[in-house]
Amino acid sequence: MTNLQEVPTEELLSFHDYPTVHSAANNTTIPISEAQIQTHSLEGNFQNSPNRQGVDYAPEPANESPAEKPFWSVEYYQKFFDVDTKDVVERIIASVTPRWDNSLKRHLRTKPDLYGPFWISVTLIFAIAISSNIANYLQHANDPKEYHWKYNFHLVSYAATTICLYVTLIPFTLWGLLKWSSQIDDIEDLGESLTPGALELICIYGYSLFIYIPASVLWSIQIDLLQWLLTLIAAFISSSVLLLTLMPALKLSRHKFLLALGILACHLLLAAGFMLYFFPNAHNTAAVVQQPLKQVAVAVAANNTHLASEPSKV
Amino acid sequence: MDSAKLEMFDDVGGYVEGEMTIPTSQNSTKIGEPDFNTLDEPIRETILRDVKAVGIKFAHVLFPKEKKTLLKEWDLWGPLFLCTFMAMSLQGSSSTDKSKTGDPQFAEVFVIVWVGSMIVTLNSKLLGGNISFLQSVCVLGYCLLPTTVALIICRIILFVEQSYILFFIRFAVSMVGFAWATYASTIFLGDSQKPGRKLLAVYPIGLFYFIISWLVISHTNT
């Protein structure tokens, strides 16, 4: 800026011949005008921009500060997928083995990822849809009158809606409630470090859904007692991991028992809802309620014009 | 400076003149070479050349040995054909009969194939793989070929009266298609990931083909 004062106005407005070859080291020695500095910085920005061809794209180092990447670029989201196979396997194992020493939490504290939650959710959606169809088939195979079995592809959409909502809405709500109800008057910095962020909560919830994948495969076995047992065991393991992981944050909350109860209830409700809706047993009382609902929903999806007469037929 | 500039312009001028004289004398150039001229060739040849390129890629998927051919010159014609064919043969009937509404619609299969391959590609990009977006979509699309073959075989089997053995054959055929597709795409795409993350990139690919194979098995024409 001091240079700018000394240069006369005419010289600034007229065209100049600058040497085309200049390196970063030259910048300090050669007296340069404002214009040159600006072109330099522009060039620098351009090279950092994300619109590069993917062929010659090299992965960014993980320790780069995230503020440099704009949020619409792929590179910005790479920090959420910065995991190796063994990390994911360790986290999955930690999510099905409730332990007091909080190994899942220690994992997530350092680097929460979105790979696990995303693909666990997708797998769960299709596992539920596929095994629900298998269960439906097994049920009809025993019934000689119902030889006209059709698979129902649209279960995928219902499963997807449920799981996506559960894995995003609940963590955000919980995050808000924890923020709101945390008592951080005297131990402010401690509270900050213990209250998990929304990303961590999504990650924890995503991994906690893992146990429902084997459960949903086994739910297709049409034995009432086994189905309920599976539901309870899966919900118990999953929610105990969840509660143990969230324990330090919950302890700070004013309504810790209410929150813990809410987490438990939501998780159990999800498991029971999966079982009753997607795996209706012929002997279940729930099946009698669910069947007409399901058929109406399918009819709506197919733009059935005789929607009104549908429930009465069933 | 000035002399350098002049030299450069001289170069360019000579280059352009040379370029314009080339087509008259060139008849024996090979396909793919830079001075190949397509302006005065019949349309039939142009189309046949493209069809041949697509056919060669299909052959590479069926016998996955060479890794670079699919990646170097990608196109989306093959995936488009396969995807449209699958969506047309997998779609349910449009009747409002209650028992027939379980099948996926044309658009649903179409979206599952394209959005699915895009998500899988995005996943491998996010994991730090060094492959361009459309190259990966192209490979994933071409590797649908085994599952499409499985679908055709299943359709043929479905013409006969159904029994448990025939269902088992359909199941086996689709599983072979699934395994083949996953294997082929892993060979083509596996190298683009770091060794520690290969499984993370391969798992979504497997899931993608498994879902499509599930659609193939589940499809019945009753």
TrEMBL record, chain A:
Annotated spans, Disordered: 44-66
Q: Which InterPro entries match?
A: Yip1_dom, Yip5/YIPF1/YIPF2
Predominant place of localization: Golgi
- Entry GO CC: Golgi membrane
**Which subcellular locations apply to this protein?**
Golgi apparatus membrane; Membrane
Example GO biological process = vesicle-mediated transport
Report the residue ranges that make up the Yip1 domain in this protein: 106-271
Keyword Ribonucleoprotein recorded: no
Q: How does it sit in the membrane?
A: Multi-pass membrane protein
Where does the sequence pass through the membrane? 114-135, 155-178, 198-219, 225-246, 258-279
Name the keywords, alphabetized: Membrane, Transmembrane, Transmembrane helix
The UniProt entry's sequence similarity note says: Belongs to the YIP1 family.
Q: Which PANTHER family match?
A: PROTEIN YIPF
Task: Give the protein's recorded name.
Answer: Protein YIPF
From TrEMBL, chain B:
**Yip1 domain segment(s):** 71-215
Q: Report the main location listed first in the record.
A: Golgi
InterPro entries noted in UniProt? Yip1/4-like, Yip1_dom
Family membership noted in the UniProt record: Belongs to the YIP1 family.
As for membrane topology, the entry says: Multi-pass membrane protein
Q: Where in the cell is it found?
A: Golgi apparatus membrane; Membrane
Pfam families, alphabetized:
Yip1
Give a yes or no for keyword Iron in this entry. Answer: no
Its recorded name reads Protein YIPF
Q: Which organism is it from?
A: Aromia moschata
Q: Which GO terms of the cellular component aspect does the record hold?
A: Golgi membrane; trans-Golgi network
Tell me the GO BP annotations in alphabetical order: endoplasmic reticulum to Golgi vesicle-mediated transport
Q: Which UniProt keywords apply?
A: Membrane, Transmembrane, Transmembrane helix
* Record field: transmembrane: 106-127, 139-158, 164-188, 200-217
Q: Could you confirm whether the keyword Magnesium appears in this record? A: no
